[in-house]
Amino acid sequence: MQINSEKKNDISIIRVSGNVDIQTSPDMKKYLDKEITGENNKIVIDLKDVDYVDSSGLATLVEVLKSLRAVSGKLKLTNLSPKVKGLFEITKLNNLFDIYGDEEEALNSFE
Amino acid sequence: MKKIIENDSHLLKEVSKELVNILKEKNVDEDIIFDIHVAFEEALRNAMIHGNRNEPDKKVTIEIEIKENLVVICVEDEGEGFDAGKLPDPTLDENLLKESGRGVYLINHLMDEAIYESGGKKVVMTKFLDKKHL
């Protein structure tokens, strides 16, 4: 798994590639924890290059969402592959997360 | 194929990769491989972490049978078992924010059949390998 980030205005865009699973999700959690720096953090996680997620990966995203909510922050997910999106639908996590088709749509949703 | 592996989560990826490669060689559809891949790793993870409680002296037994149009995967641990019917539904509103409890649910929904035997110590998962069953 690789992660890089970009700041656009006050929004952090986190681009993840590879697998988000039992082996890699602790690293993703550490990375994202550093991004949650204070009140009202706005984060977009771009999963365009993620082709495998397991329940550990889903759990980590739930943890990040809870951390952000605790500081009145907002989290948007974008670019989920059909199969990864399917996992969100099976587990009904699509009802919990704000999911967008692409980065631009996710960024515009903060306005 | 039958394998008895150490209770080491690093081996989880190794054996699942082996299965994925076999399915790829058989030209199984990628969407079906994805479902099997996730379910198999969830079953292994449950066996190692929840069943065998990360105890290094315990083992996980894996049996995989690939027939013409279906795969049957058995994963058995040496733990105390569990009642799959009593697990909370992770999709209920009150459980959505919980960080655990989705593994068995994913197995049950990604595979065509998942039967828990030996008091929950063994899961027998079946998936059809042709698209008409999707």
Architecture of chain B, according to CATH? 2-Layer Sandwich
Main sheet specs of chain B:
5 strands, antiparallel
CATH topology of chain A: Transcription Regulator spoIIAA
Question: Which CATH architecture of chain A?
Answer: 2-Layer Sandwich
- Major sheet of chain A: 5 strands, mixed
List segments of chain B where confidence is low: pLDDT < 50 over at least 5 consecutive residues: none
What distance separates the N and C termini of chain B?
25 Å
- Return the domain count of chain B: 1
CATH superfamily of chain A: STAS domain
Spans where pLDDT lies below 50 across 5 or more residues of chain A: none
Tally of contiguous helical segments of chain A:
4
Write the layout of secondary structure elements.
The complex is a heterodimer of chains A (111) and B (134).
Chain A: E1 2-8, E2 11-20, H1 25-35, E3 42-53, H2 55-70, E4 74-78, H3 82-90, E5 98-100, H4 103-108
Parallel strand pairs in A: 2-3, 3-4, 4-5
Antiparallel strand pairs in A: 1-2
Helix pairs in contact in A: 1-2
Chain B: E1 2-6, H1 9-25, H2 30-51, E2 59-66, E3 70-76, H3 103-110, E4 113-117, E5 122-128
Antiparallel strand pairs in B: 1-2, 2-3, 3-5, 4-5
